[in-house]
Amino acid sequence: MGHLTISNKMLDKYFGFLINLDNNSKKRLIIRLTESIETERKVNTDLSLLFGSWADDRDSDEIIKEIKDSRVDNRNLAE
User: Do residues 24 and 65 touch, judged by C-beta distance below 8 A?
Assistant: First the structure.
């Protein structure tokens, strides 16, 4: 999961809301934020996992025929 960076102005807006929380809620929030920093996960940035060759034993004509045969005529569905 990527990281979200916010501006100081946005931080001030969040703080304006959070300052009104009771002390127990603030402590729980601090603990959760601290834990999220300590257990930060490494993001896999290996883009080669996102693409590759098509793995299929059929030839292109067979694949095209299957795609065309699976099409549905929406005009006939209303009848």
Answer: no
